[in-house]
Design brief:
alpha+beta; 456 residues; two-stranded antiparallel ribbon; 43% helix
Length: 456
């Protein structure tokens, strides 16, 4: 291919716009690094992760334009970055948190809804890597449809989920066998890290039933700004105290008994639930009551949300119709005075699902974080941070770039133009990969044309 024609095609690709956006996005991250050579590796590594859709170093290096560097030279830059003993992983974590601060400053929400979520990453064929542990995996399940035990590592993250671009306020990749204290300790560190990053903002933590722990409630109340929380209750057999106004005293009751008798507000509303491309509508009614914990006397409010699925009710037999009604119990330290307050807490808790979408995007069909091919735990931590940064960059483009430019990238990534298309981050990721891979291929043609003459 003629070099002039190659240059013309390269000029038409949006590589410059992408590189400029990437440099601007990672600028808060690179500010914490002590050396200019290290700062140059960050956008280069993030571009490689997105272009190769993998954290494998050789695949990341393969996406570099041949006019800039060879594949081996690019791979050495990344390997040296991961192996640099003078560059601790905590410094990279600080850079990731700087990006979170920049995102929050730009979007400026009224308060922060922060999802806390531990997650297990599977590495099934790993035997000799440092700190490989036995983890509990429910996706994908075993042949009986149940959770299984597998080799892998653990991670805990805290992510702001009420912004258009996710912002990570805590991230740690760790092992049960190396420097591990407890998962509750990880949750405590996540709470403290979020409070340190945003000392003047109101923070509301949301979590699933795994965080239903009285110690976690106390940690949140001990923060300087007394962080709020909304956590799904799992221990419904626990004893709690409710105030008897007639007798002017606190009385102990079982939480499950209170949930079954709490009155629901007359007003209801429709909520859409989506999973695996299938959507369903449910009617929601909420009730609430004030209670306190017997040991600590900490005041809490229980929000009871009843979800009624009309489609499921129609499909089930009459004797099983009650299965169409699902009851969700949320515990919060936010005072609930009316149905609007309870509805707001329920809406904030539902935002927790966004962190799970981010995990899925980092795994499997997205950036494939589980396919790391480095052995030390320190290198895994660094790659994990870079993958989170790459995920947030894709979300940043999806929300901040002009819609017509994002649509062009999705079309390049395989958008069909049909009503069944899902305009999520996956098509955008493939479009970004196609742009950078095309630039790499054309630059390789310019430097090293295909030896077609040997076939003659």
């Amino acid at each position: 291919m003629d070099s002039v024609l190659i240059d013309e095609v390269l000029d038409k690709l949006p590589t410059k716009e992408l590189d400029d956006s990437l440099s601007e996005f990672v600028a808060p991250f690179t500010e914490v690094l002590p050396d200019e050579r290290l700062r140059r590796v960050i956008p280069f590594a993030v571009r490689g992760i997105v272009a190769g859709q993998t954290p494998i170093v050789t695949a990341m290096a393969r996406s570099v334009q041949r006019t800039e560097s060879s594949t081996w030279a690019a791979a050495k830059r990344i390997y040296r970055f991961l192996e640099n003993r003078r560059l601790p992983a905590r410094l990279l974590e600080e850079g990731l948190y700087r990006c979170a601060q920049a995102t929050i400053e730009e979007e400026d929400p009224d308060y922060l809804v922060v999802a806390l979520d531990p997650v297990n990453f599977e590495k099934p064929y790993t035997h000799e890597s440092e700190g490989v542990s036995t983890v509990h995996k429910s996706t994908p399940p075993d042949r009986h449809g149940k959770a299984r035990l597998a080799r892998g590592y653990l991670a805990t993250t805290a992510t702001v989920v009420n912004t258009r671009v996710p912002a990570t306020t805590y991230a740690n990749w760790f092992s049960y066998t190396t420097g591990f204290i407890s998962e509750n300790r990880e949750i405590q560190r996540a709470i403290g890290s979020t409070g340190r990053l945003f000392p003047k903002r109101r923070v509301r933590f949301v979590g699933d039933s795994g965080l239903d722990d009285q110690k976690i409630f106390e940690w949140m109340s001990q923060e300087e700004e007394e962080a709020e929380f909304v956590i799904r209750a799992s221990h419904l057999e626990r004893l709690v105290e409710v105030y008897n106004r007639r007798l002017n005293r606190w009385e102990r009751e079982r939480l499950r008994d209170l949930v079954e008798t709490v009155p629901l507000a007359a007003e209801s509303w429709q909520v859409a639930f989506s999973h695996a491309g299938v959507s369903r509508m449910a009617t929601i009614r909420v009730g609430w009551l004030e209670l306190r914990l017997p040991e600590t006397h900490q005041r809490l409010w229980a929000v009871v949300a009843e979800e009624y699925d009309e489609r499921a009710a129609e499909q089930e037999e009459e004797e099983e119709e009650e299965e169409a009604v699902r009851t969700l119990v949320l515990l919060s330290d936010v005072a609930v005075a009316n149905a609007d307050d309870a509805r707001a807490l329920y809406a904030d808790w539902r935002l927790k699902g966004r962190i799970e979408h981010g995990y899925r995007f980092c795994q499997e069909a997205g950036l494939d974080v589980e396919d790391m091919r480095v052995r030390s735990l320190e290198r895994m931590r660094r790659l994990f941070i870079l993958v989170l940064l790459a995920m947030q960059f894709v979300m940043h483009l999806m929300e901040r770039w002009p819609k017509v430019a994002v649509r062009w990238l999705r079309q390049l990534g395989g958008k069909l133009g049909l009503q069944i298309d899902r305009d999520g981050p996956y098509l955008l990721l493939r479009g970004l990969s196609a742009v950078w891979q095309t630039a790499m291929t054309l630059s390789h043609f310019a430097v090293c044309p295909f030896p077609r003459g040997v076939f003659r």
